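User: two proteins, same treatment. go.

Assistant:
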Amino acid sequence: MPDGWHDARDWHGEVSRALILAAETQAGALQEAGGRAVYAGGDDLLGLVSAAEAFSVVRSCRELFLARTEGLLRRRSASTAVVFFHVSFPLQDALARTRMALVEAKARPGKGGLAVVVLRRGGEKAAAVLPWRGRQGSDPAASLEALAAEFRARLSPQLVNDVYRSRHGIAELARAGLDYGAEIRRLVGRHADAGPVDALSLVGAVEPAVGRLSADDVRAWAEALDIARFVAQEAR
């Protein structure tokens, strides 16, 4: 119970009311985006929405939960899972992967992760777990939206493959304390159709928040880029 509350029953009642209001406003956010809340109650939310609206909706729903519970809960966090799947994909399989993705998001330190998965008819195509507060305070959902816009506008899809192929070299530069960002800038510049590109603001926003990158970290980075590329190509 946070400081300032002296009666546990009053506090529990206020928390319950706040969670009910949060669920109602979250369901409204889904509806406004053309989606639907399958379940909204307590601190759980399950909804369906178009791929084009997914990142803006999950960001709004997280902000609504945090706003409604301000001053009532200590160490508030909101773990989120977003799973992209085709209308013909088996719904039960998609729900099962969503539950697994949510476990992965909650496994992050602070339980404040955003897990994103892309499912194809043939199986899983890409998956990444990002912190809700990334490097320099970046928002992962907004970062993925911005990257998707750049893939639509001027970034070649081949950037993802090049980052993946270069993962060991990028990790070696990072481990040696060298400017691995220079290699990222080179790759982004190589795959940008026109104009100067601020590579680190585009790509760095989904960089794994670790001290020294490993090859697996860079692979996860490429997975996040692949998700943005998918949204750019499929979510129109």
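Protein 2:
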Amino acid sequence: MSSSSVRDLASDLANGSAEVIDLTQPLSETTPVLVLPEPFANTPHLSRRPLSHFDDDGPAWAWDVLELGEHTGTHLDAPIHWITGKDSGVDVASIPPARLTGPVSVVDKTAEVAEEPGYLLTAADLDAYQSEHGELPPGSWVFFRSGWSARAQDEAAFLNAGAEGPVSPGPDVAAAKWLAEHPNIVGFGVETVGIDAGAAGGMDPAFPVHNFLLGSGRYGLTQLANLEALPVTGALVVVAPLKLVGGTGSPSRVLAFV
């Protein structure tokens, strides 16, 4: 980016012609977390204990100790999170900064998900998006807008688990392969608790977005907010995970320039 482009962006932000949209869900003790069936280990909800709070342990300062899983709230999945990417060596800390910033393509299926909460995004949907809006630019993040973030403050509604398992939208197997094989895609983001659909455990392969996307060295983003504020093309995203050495994932602040 030229110095004049940087000045133009700074000017646009100052005068309001460009806007920064926060795509991050609030992170607290009530943030929904993924629930796996027995016998698998589950991540805890965020918890905290005080170190000091303007008291004898620290008269002029307050700070806490946090306990939370790497994959809590709005968070990034690194390739080493999944067995297909475990030998890649790509942890959160080793992701090149340039791959954490890029153009956003928003595939909007809010109406379809309102009719069918378990809606599966298809390769035909993604082809149709490109036919309408043009080839995805290099370094793209693809965000699946489903309207699911409206449930984010109610864990039961957000996880939407019934007798047959969780029901939530996400890509089918062919769409997962499409995302993993497209040469211009860096990562894929969703509003739901994970990058796969609720029904993904019964697909072949199971959890195909994790399987194909992370196995191809791409990244996932979950529990995004405010996707309705983004245009379908033209926004720029900045993903800011902790630079966690050995991290399989990290809670992240995600911002978009519109």
